[in-house]
Amino acid sequence: MYALQSLLILASLGVNAFGATYSQSDSHTGTGFLKSFTHEAISDPTHGRVNYVDQSTALAKNLTFASGDTFIIRADHTTTLSSSGPGRDSVRLQSNKQYTTHVTIWNIRHMPQGCGTWPAVWEVGADWPNNGEVDILEGVNDQSPNQATLHTSSGCSMPSSRDQSGNSVGNNCDTASTNNAGCGVQVTQSNSYGPSFNSNGGGWYAMERTDTEVKVWFWPRNGNVPSDVANGETTIDTDGWGQPFAYFPDTDCDINSHFGPQNLIINLTFCGDWAGAVFDSDNCPGDCATYVNENPAAFTNAYFDIAWLKIYE
Ligand SMILES: *[C@@H]1O[C@H](CO)[C@@H](O)[C@H](O)[C@H]1NC(C)=O
Ligand SMILES: *[C@@H]1O[C@H](CO)[C@@H](O)[C@H](O)[C@H]1NC(C)=O
User: Fold this and answer.
1) How many CA atoms lie within 13 A of 271 on its CB side?
2) d(Cα 271, Cα 289) in Å, to the nearest integer?
3) Which atom of ligand 1 is nearest to the CA of 135?
4) Is 40 among the catalytic positions?
5) Which of 231, 250, 263 is nearest to 95 (CA)?
6) Could you give the angle at the alpha carbon of 179 between the alpha carbons of 243 and 216, nearest 5°?
7) Which CATH architecture group holds 18-312?
8) Is 304 exposed, middle or buried, given 0-12, 13-18 or 19+ CB atoms closer than 10 A?
9) Under a CB-based contact definition with an 8 Å cutoff, are residues 274 and 182 in contact?
10) Is 65 in the pocket of ligand 2 (CB under 6 A)?
11) Pairing state of beta strands 303-312 and 102-110?
């Protein structure tokens, strides 16, 4: 009896002690991204003024550049485009591996900026939206702050009050009934996105997906970042990370049935359904597609510089 009780106590302690502890399964830096991600030369379903190129084209044109702990993907910033031709050359990367429950930490030094830009770091499964989408870092036209968003099939919504530091901008995650908006949460810090993120040297984004919740954190460079995050340690404990800016619990959303295996994606498009629609109200000049076509130099800073990506399971 005593032994059985001890075993049960130990077992429950074990579950609690290891519940938020993860081991590193993948670590990507520099040229490692070229092997673990595929450049996808596809057309943008969100109607962007973009021309995604394949890996050999991206390397030849120096749109993708990898050396040491620098990994850069960028838009073309030298070519004036004809309005009747393809959009601006850019890069869309998709991880070769898929993940279910996991943690990602992105150490990003610089993100694309400029009127018309629509960059994103996100995760998505096949047969959208049935395997769900998690947007970690996304925005348009240099408008800070960052917003993290879930997009799902029907039957997934978030409680209006929950344990997060950010501000919810919609609690229904069902993409069909929200005109594709999903349920988003904005970071409170303005240096979470765009020019102010870049002038501060960027920072770290992290996402945790379990069977019962999704959490997203942001720490600016020189901020109060947990040491396991800053160092990309081989073992991490998300319980020590403090309150996330975005918290998506399973109160009114069965996470396992709305989220399947997902690929990690980094991309940069222009104009299209979001950046183009609000180009004018975001105080950008004239018409978005015309601006993208005629002002290559405006995209000199339209690049990601990623120090590393680490994935934990
Ligand atoms: C990324 O690319 C995909 C496919 O082209 C597109 O659906 C999505 O809207 C793009 N998102 C951003 C933020 O560029
Ligand atoms: C390619 O881009 C990298 C990163 O911006 C830069 O350091 C390098 O000089 C470029 N190479 C060429 C040949 O332009």
Assistant:
1) 16
2) 6
3) 13
4) no
5) 263
6) 15
7) Sandwich (2.60)
8) buried
9) no
10) yes
11) antiparallel
**Residue 9 burial (CB count, 10 A):** 10
285 φ, ψ (degrees, to nearest 5): -85, 125
Q: Identify the residue whose C-alpha is closest to ligand 2 atom 3.
A: 65
Using the structure block, give the residue that is written with the tokens 């960059």: 119
Q: What is the pLDDT along the chain (313 residues), one digit of tens a residue?
A: 444 454 444 444 434 445 599 999 999 999 999 999 999 999 998 999 999 999 999 999 999 999 999 999 999 999 999 999 999 999 999 999 999 999 999 999 999 999 999 999 999 999 999 999 999 999 999 999 999 999 999 999 999 999 999 999 999 999 999 999 999 999 999 999 999 999 999 999 999 999 999 999 999 999 999 999 999 999 999 999 999 999 999 999 999 999 999 999 999 999 999 999 999 999 999 999 999 999 999 999 999 999 999 999 9
Give this prediction's pTM: 0.93
**Other Cβ atoms closer than 10 A to 296:** 17
CA–CA separation, 91 and 124 (whole Å): 17
User: Residue 74 CA: which ligand 2 atom is closest?
Assistant: 5
Among residues 25, 90, 34, the alpha carbon closest in space to that of 63 is found at 90
Q: Which of 40, 138, 233, 294 is the catalytic position?
A: 138
Gap between the Cα atoms of 213 and 206, Å rounded: 14
> Is any atom of ligand 2 closer than 6 Å to the C-beta of 300?
no
* Residues 29 and 310 sit within 8 Å (Cβ to Cβ): no
Backbone phi, psi, residue 229, to 5°: -75, -55
The DSSP secondary-structure symbol of 4 reads: H
β-strands 37-39, 303-312 pairing: unpaired
Q: Which of 123, 133, 213, 294 is catalytic?
A: 133
Q: 104 C-alpha vs ligand 2 centroid, how far in Å?
A: 28
Residues belonging to the chain: 313
Residue owning tokens 């918290």: 247
**Ligand 2 pocket residue status of 30, Cβ below 6 Å:** no
